[in-house]
Specification:
Elements: H1 2-14, H2 20-26, H3 38-50, H4 52-61, H5 64-84, H6 88-116, H7 123-150, H8 153-174, H9 191-214, H10 217-220, H11 243-269, H12 272-290, H13 303-323, H14 338-367, H15 371-376, H16 379-395, H17 401-419, H18 430-458, H19 464-499, H20 507-536
Helix pairs in contact: 1-6, 1-7, 1-8, 3-6, 3-12, 4-5, 4-6, 4-19, 5-6, 5-8, 6-19, 7-16, 7-18, 9-11, 12-13, 12-19, 14-18, 14-19, 14-20, 16-18, 17-18, 17-20, 18-19, 19-20
């Protein structure tokens, strides 16, 4: 059930691909202001990646199923907020909550696998988790297209609410017996009166927020009852900046104060300051690169001041790691094969994003297709990834992570380098395009389970959530930064080609230069995959859990591990 929730969150990453223009129109942003719609995408990415280390650490301190439940709650709330949004800030806030909840599901699920299966038997479940996550990426655009064929964009997110609630119920029911327990009981300070007050304020906050964002016509058009729904700035048409919205915000602030004694000690124990510094650094990275147009620029419009801010946050985090008694990433958690696993994940992220972005770009350049048809070219790649993930997990029962991941990534590198030789007419040849796309997807998929298996094997038992989150963060950083760096190389090559053209107004010559740009990006992606294959050799030749495999210390039986918290 947790894997299905991961698939749902992964699908939501791409579900806006086809609905973005309709969503922008729904909040009053025209197609001529496409750049203003960027936060709809970057808001989700920011929520997905920025708090992953904190959620991973929290999943080591409390019952992982509790983390899954709360992440699903946040995801459902974010979906509902997005569905009712009529203004851009509210929609971006909803997408942020979706990313926050969806991103937290991945490390908690991977760590749950480490809890439920001993070393040497995690390969297949890790492969299944990776497969459903990648399958969700395939189904996201298709699900969006299916809903848009019969309804509007808001129904996409209401469907998310329904599916999220179903996953929430499944995790709740299936997780009632067994699982990782022993977490610290909630802080009951304040007595029955304090808890009752908090519940009452919570109900009021939810009710007022619902009224503010829903703004039912029967109330907003009423002479007697419509006053609280009138925006402070009538020209804006805002539903949030209204008297009822303000009271709802105050109710949330009051609820935060009333319940702080229950959750603040846990956050402090997880190193809230360190998590804030990491979130600042990752947020600056995401906003700098994800807000850039990958076809024309490397840094987004805020990059010149966000990158220095992120660098300062990194320095602050490193100082915090060395000085804190209980840092965000506990000392000794990241060790041995965790390091090459993180580097492989980083390089694979750069390879994947280049294929996902530049293969459709080549289709649009050479076949004059729209974004939807261009995206369909990728289906062969995206379908092969989950197949490779399951196969890689199955192979881990017999061979070591390096034996699976290194050849898989070598296959991906060869396939991507073959794509880098595609010409203007290549996409019309089905066989010439299908084989490299399938090879790249299969190779990338083969590496998913080995990377996670090796990292979890050498992580401490009380750090599985932290390490899982770092693996996911490494991949996401690789995607964000890798796209920017490879695009920079591609743009530089494009301008070099244009500079030597005898006639810059020649359309065919300019198209050839654009194809060279794509070829350059894919070449860089192939090199990144080849480097990942070499690093993957450090993941271990022996199967995890093999008696002769080197381990830092013997692993306790799963049933006897001391629960975190």
């Amino acid at each position: 059930m947790a894997s299905l929730a991961v698939a749902l969150a992964a699908a939501d990453t791409y579900v806006v691909v086809l609905a973005l223009t309709d969503m922008m129109a729904g909040v009053g942003v025209g197609i001529e202001s496409l750049q203003r719609g960027t936060p709809i995408v970057s808001g989700f990415l920011l929520g997905y990646i920025a708090v992953l280390p904190l959620i991973g650490r929290l999943s080591d301190l409390v019952d992982r199923r509790r983390i899954l439940l709360w992440c699903l709650v946040v995801f459902v709330v974010g979906s509902a907020v997005t569905a009712v949004a009529v203004e851009l800030p509210v929609m971006v806030g909803g997408r942020f909550l979706q990313g926050l909840g969806g991103g937290g599901l991945v490390p908690a699920t991977l760590a749950l696998v480490a809890d439920l299966w001993p070393p040497g038997r995690r390969g297949m479940p890790l492969g299944v988790v990776g497969a459903v996550q990648e399958l969700g990426s395939v189904l996201g655009p298709l699900l969006g297209a299916l809903v848009l064929a019969v309804a509007g964009w808001r129904e996409i997110f209401w469907l998310n609410v329904v599916l999220g609630l179903a996953c929430l119920a499944g995790v709740w029911v299936l997780g009632r017996d067994g699982g990782r327990g022993g977490a610290e009981p909630p802080n009951r300070a304040g007595g029955a009166l304090g808890r009752g007050t908090a519940y009452l304020v919570g109900v009021v906050a939810v009710a007022l927020t619902t009224l503010a964002l829903w703004a039912p016509e029967v109330l907003t058009t009423s002479v007697a009852l419509g006053g609280p729904f009138v925006p402070f700035d009538p020209a804006s048409g805002s539903r949030a900046m209204t008297p009822v919205g303000l009271v709802a915000a105050l109710a949330w602030v009051l609820l935060t104060v009333l319940t702080a004694r229950a959750w603040l000690p846990l956050l402090l124990r997880a190193d809230l300051l360190g998590a804030t510094l990491v979130a600042t650094a990752l947020g600056a990275l995401v906003l700098t690169f994800s807000s850039a147009d990958p076809e024309t620029e490397v840094l987004g419009p805020w990059g010149l001041w966000l990158l220095p801010l992120g660098a300062l946050a990194v320095v602050g985090f490193l100082v915090r790691q060395r000085t804190a008694a209980a840092p965000l990433v506990p000392r000794g958690v990241v060790r041995r094969r965790v390091w090459p696993a993180l580097l492989v994940s980083l390089l694979v992220g750069a390879s994947i994003v280049a294929v996902v972005v530049d293969v459709p770009l080549l289709s649009r350049l050479t076949q004059d297709t729209d974004e939807t048809d261009a995206a369909l070219v990728l289906v062969r790649f995206l379908v092969a990834v989950p197949v490779g993930a399951v196969l890689g997990g199955w192979l881990l029962r017999r061979v070591g992570p390096a034996v699976v991941a290194a050849p898989g990534l070598a296959l991906a590198a060869v396939s991507i380098l073959a794509m880098a030789r595609w010409e203007r007419a290549t996409l019309e040849d089905v066989l010439a395009t299908t084989l490299p796309l399938l090879g790249a997807g299969l190779g990338v998929g083969l590496a998913i389970a080995p990377v996670n298996d090796a990292a979890l094997a050498d992580a401490r038992d009380d750090g599985h959530g932290t390490v899982s989150s770092l693996v996911v963060v490494a991949r996401m950083v690789g995607m964000v930064v890798g796209l920017a760096l490879l695009t920079s190389l591609g743009l530089r090559r494009f301008h070099q080609e244009v500079a030597v053209l005898p006639d810059p107004s020649d359309t065919d010559a300019m198209l050839d230069a654009a194809v060279v740009q794509v070829q350059t990006v894919l070449t860089g992606a192939g090199v990144a995959a080849a480097a990942a294959a070499l690093v993957a050799l450090l993941l271990g030749m022996r199967p995890v859990g093999h008696p002769s495999a080197e381990r830092l210390e013997p692993s306790e039986p799963v049933a006897s591990r001391r629960p975190a918290g």
